[in-house]
């Protein structure tokens, strides 16, 4: 009897389970039908963004590209790749917008070869001029990267800007390869690589009719043949002083030049003073312990110089600097109109009045001035010295520790001298103090008066709230 009851119970369980399955299958069928109806309604909808004309969407996509100082890469999480992964319509628009693909950064390192990605990307740019950053480092021995060079060469005729990070031997391989290089549109060239001994001069970039701007890092001018005569802008990194002077001789039409981290010459150069009649802007930046770039000023005469930026991080004998710089200025005046002096430390021993005997200077930026320097500087204002920056219109002091009272007196004196024929109107003043400076109401009052009188003056705008007594540029 027990077995009979057990079998009946089991049959009942099977029947109940079957009934539940039928019930849930019916629910599933209803849900599937509901989903199908809803999907049809959804597919019938047209999203507002898809109603935008394709040319407007293309422009929106273009505005989504990385900032100018960044580069596009084949990152699926960033534009333009990201835009092509949203939907079919956006992908079609992205792929049919050549401007989205006209700039690319492509890295080739050991174990990674993406020639097909480079080819696909550059092909999407169509006939749009290209801006390419190509980095080729640490390839396996015997790897010539021929597929990448072949792709690169096929599109070289469209390249307008080229930033090439490459070892010297790879650059030689590029030139020796069977590919036909052509750079009829190239305007900007940046080569940076490794140091090397004397090698034959490369000719790969010798025929670039539109080339105007060149940057070389660790490549002496003698290592590469370029149309030097037509260049107007040059940046040299890790060049010796002798190399820098050689470059200035090679580029007679140069207008703007920057030398960064000048390397030390094996022997102290004994050279005549070089006169360059067309150079209008010069920047010298030294980040190392030795101020090698400063030595270059001994050998330069720049009668057309209008803008000069001098920045260094090493310690310097200010008396020696005073002599070198004053002599240099005597060979550059009077055209010099803008000067930015950026030492990394505060300086004191400075013949302010003699150093700033710049009759045409209208824009001056000084970093890390000591209170002693600013005291001497403002004294020249208060003494109404007509030889001391008579045409100054824009003044900036950054990272300074001067007393507010002394500064306000000097600025007021120069401001009230604006009606004299000998002095220009001091229009803008930017003062950046160390964060521990105490800006009291009494200290700020003289600056507020200058602001109310018409001077555009700003003091630590980030550190002073507008609800308190502030001195903020209009």
Could you walk me through the main structural features you see in this protein, from its secondary elements to its overall organization?
With 474 residues, this protein is α/β, with parallel strands linked by helices. It has a domain at 42-100. Helices cover 34% and strands 18% of the residues. It has 13 helices and 16 strands. The protein has helices at 2-44, 54-63, 88-95, 115-124, 146-154, 168-176, 241-250, 292-296, 318-330, 352-355, 371-382, 404-416, 441-453, and strands at residues 103-108, 130-136, 159-166, 188-192, 213-217, 233-237, 256-260, 274-275, 281-286, 300-301, 307-312, 338-343, 363-367, 394-400, 428-433, 456-459. Strands 1-2-3-4-5-6-7-9-11-12-13-14-15-16 form a 14-stranded parallel beta sheet. Strands 8-10 form a two-stranded parallel ribbon. It is extended, with a radius of gyration of 34 Å. Residues 462-474 have low confidence and may be disordered. It comes from Mycena rosella. InterPro entries: LRR_dom_sf (IPR032675). This is F-box domain-containing protein.
């Amino acid at each position: 009897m027990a077995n009979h009851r057990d079998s009946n119970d089991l049959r009942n369980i099977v029947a109940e389970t079957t009934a539940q399955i039928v019930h849930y299958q019916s629910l599933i069928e209803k849900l599937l039908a509901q989903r199908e109806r809803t999907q049809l309604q959804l597919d019938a909808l047209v999203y507002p963004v898809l109603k935008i004309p394709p040319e407007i969407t293309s422009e929106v996509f273009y505005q989504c590209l990385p900032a100018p100082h960044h580069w596009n890469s084949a990152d699926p999480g960033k534009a333009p790749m990201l835009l092509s992964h949203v939907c079919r319509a956006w992908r079609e628009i992205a792929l049919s917008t050549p401007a989205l693909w006209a700039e690319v950064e492509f890295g080739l390192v050991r174990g990674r070869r993406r020639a097909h990605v480079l080819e696909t990307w550059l092909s999407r740019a169509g006939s749009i001029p290209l801006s390419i950053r190509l980095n080729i480092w640490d390839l396996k021995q015997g790897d010539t990267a021929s597929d990448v060079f072949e792709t690169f060469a096929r599109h070289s005729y469209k390249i307008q800007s080229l930033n090439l990070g490459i070892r010297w031997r790879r650059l030689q391989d590029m030139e020796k390869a069977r590919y036909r290089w052509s750079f009829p549109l190239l305007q900007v060239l940046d080569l940076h690589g490794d140091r090397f001994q004397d090698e034959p001069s490369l000719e790969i970039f010798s025929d670039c009719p539109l080339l105007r701007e060149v940057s070389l890092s660790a490549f002496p001018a003698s290592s590469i043949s370029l149309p030097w005569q037509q260049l107007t802008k040059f940046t040299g990194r890790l060049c010796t002083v002798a190399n820098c002077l050689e470059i200035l001789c090679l580029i007679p039409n140069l207008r703007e030049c920057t030398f960064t981290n000048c390397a030390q010459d094996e022997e102290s150069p004994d050279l005549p003073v070089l006169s360059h009649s067309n150079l209008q802007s010069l920047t010298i930046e030294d980040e190392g312990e030795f101020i090698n770039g400063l030595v270059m000023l001994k050998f330069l005469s720049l009668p057309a110089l209008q803008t000069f930026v001098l920045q260094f991080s090493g310690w310097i004998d200010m008396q020696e600097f005073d002599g070198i710089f004053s002599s240099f200025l005597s060979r550059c005046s009077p055209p010099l109109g803008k000067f930015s002096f950026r030492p990394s430390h505060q300086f004191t021993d400075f013949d302010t009045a003699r150093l700033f005997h710049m009759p045409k200077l209208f824009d001056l930026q000084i970093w890390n001035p000591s209170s002693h320097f600013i005291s001497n500087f403002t004294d020249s204002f208060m003494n109404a010295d007509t030889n001391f920056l008579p045409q100054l219109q824009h003044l900036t002091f950054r990272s300074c520790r001067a007393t507010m009272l002394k500064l306000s007196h000097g600025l007021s004196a120069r401001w009230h001298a604006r009606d004299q024929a000998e002095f220009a109107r001091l229009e803008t003043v930017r003062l950046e103090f160390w964060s521990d400076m105490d800006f009291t109401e009494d200290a700020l009052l003289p600056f507020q008066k200058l602001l109310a009188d018409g001077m555009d003056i700003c003091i630590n705008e980030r550190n002073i709230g507008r609800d308190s007594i502030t001195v903020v540029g209009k």
